[in-house]
Design brief:
Oligomer: single chain
Structural class: alpha/beta
Distance between the termini: 51 Å
Shape: globular
Helix content: 10-25%
Length: 438
């Protein structure tokens, strides 16, 4: 049985397993019908022109884990930001792990999506926010909506500055031959509130897996959100990450994506503006090799005046790796005084590495400052020669140049311990030890 047919036939059994009120039943039913009509995306669709899912979908994925699996903290400690205290929402094979988590309802909600979906006290919030900014047309988002039952629910009240970062981690134990997960996150940040969130999907063995994740983020007036996505998975793991961001007046949202591992990674990042003086920051670093594939698809829809967006994506590709950057800035007629900037800079370390870049601007306003740019090249041989002539070995010189190339994005990290962790991952990917404090 093909995976599409397996998912459709499993939907009815899935709804029987969970408590769901009628409104959610209607939402799920509409979503599964949309997926049934459209199926998995193919390269015939312009948005998926450079990325094919065919090789992944041949696996016989389990739709639900057959049993609950436990893991010890000592075995996964390295994946946590254990240097500092954090709120934690942790899942193992899609099931909440109370042992590894540190949730809270003390002045803010950092808890489970299942609780929010099923408990009456959250009904008004779910009715207002759940599935309101996520795409109703995208087939993979619809698939997630149909099966959405678990994930992280974060609700930060007005004027609350969250003192500790929040970690959302999804572990896959590999106890299934192949497992498909559908996590759903909902993040609501009230007026004048500030929060830092780290999200990670991590396989613990080499069995193939696919995660189809959807996150909805709502930033109310003057809210500040720093969101970090750490993607450093095994070569058998596949991730499709759909993130939708709604911003109101004077809010600042930054999404930083660090893509270092996995077989295929597709990041769909969509920003929508609903007020003036909004700032949206989209930053990314991709460092991959072998036959890895990372696809960044971004959209910033400027619908109101006096707003800004900044996109800065750096890519380093070795061996037979493939990168894709498909970024779109859409400026509506009413969005005068918009400042929107987009750049994608890439280095190819191999003749067989590939980058497909498609920066796009659609501007219907006449009083704007907008630009986009893309560069694809190799390391500067003159700089390499200069560094080697000063006694720096070739390998270290190469690594330092690549680090300097991505440093602007690294500097955007607001959590010092996370910045240090990312730097170590980059050094490992580049095959060197950085001999100075970063």
């Amino acid at each position: 049985m093909e995976l599409k047919d397996k998912l459709i036939s499993s939907f009815m059994a899935f709804e029987e397993q969970i408590d769901v009120h009628s409104e959610l039943h209607d939402v799920r039913t509409h979503a599964i019908k949309n997926f049934e009509n459209k199926g998995f995306p193919t390269k015939k669709e312009e948005a998926w022109r450079y990325t094919s899912l065919n090789s992944i979908l041949k696996n016989d994925f389990s739709v639900f884990p057959k049993k609950e699996n436990n893991i010890e903290f000592k075995d996964v400690k390295r994946f946590f930001l254990h240097e500092i205290d954090t709120h934690k929402v942790i899942f193992v094979d899609g099931i909440f792990s109370s042992f590894l988590s540190a949730t809270t309802h003390d002045g803010l909600d950092v808890c489970l999506m299942s609780s929010a979906l099923n408990k009456p006290k959250y009904k008004m919030i779910i009715d207002e926010f759940f599935n309101k900014i996520a795409s109703q047309d995208d087939s993979l988002t619809s698939l997630n909506t149909a099966f959405a039952s678990e994930g992280a629910y974060i609700n930060i009240p007005k004027s609350k500055v969250v003192e500790k970062p929040i970690e959302i981690i999804y572990f896959s134990t590999g106890s299934e031959t192949a497992l498909m997960l559908q996590p759903r996150n909902l993040v609501i940040v009230g007026e004048n509130a500030h929060v830092q969130i780290i999200e990670r999907h991590q396989s613990l063995n080499e069995n193939p897996g696919i995660t189809n994740s959807v996150t909805e983020i709502f930033a109310q007036k003057r809210a500040i959100i720093d969101y970090y996505k750490i993607q450093n998975d095994t070569l058998e793991a596949n991730l499709i990450d759909n993130t939708f961001v709604s911003q109101k007046q004077e809010s600042i949202v930054s999404v930083n994506t660090f893509s270092f591992g996995g077989n295929l990674t597709r990041n769909n990042l969509n920003f929508y503006h609903f007020g003036e003086r909004i700032v949206s920051n989209l930053n990314g670093i991709t460092i991959i090799g072998e036959k890895q594939h990372v696809d960044h698809y971004t959209l910033v829809q400027h619908a109101t005046p006096n707003c800004e967006s900044h996109q800065d994506y750096k890519g380093i590709f070795a061996d037979r790796a493939t990168g894709v950057f498909n970024g779109k800035i859409f400026v509506e007629k009413e969005a005068q005084k918009t400042n929107a900037f987009q750049k994608s800079n890439n280095i190819l370390l191999s003749d067989k590495a590939t980058i497909n870049a498609k920066p796009q601007l659609e501007i219907f306003a006449d009083d704007v400052k907008c630009s986009h740019g893309c560069t694809i090249g190799q390391l500067d041989e003159t700089a390499m020669f200069y560094m080697q002539s000063r006694g720096i070995p070739k390998k270290e010189a190469k690594a330092l140049l690549m680090y300097a190339f991505s440093n602007a994005v690294i500097e955007s990290i607001k959590i010092p311990e996370l910045k240090q962790r990312i730097t170590k991952i980059i050094a490992t990917k580049l095959g060197v030890k950085m001999g100075f404090d970063l």
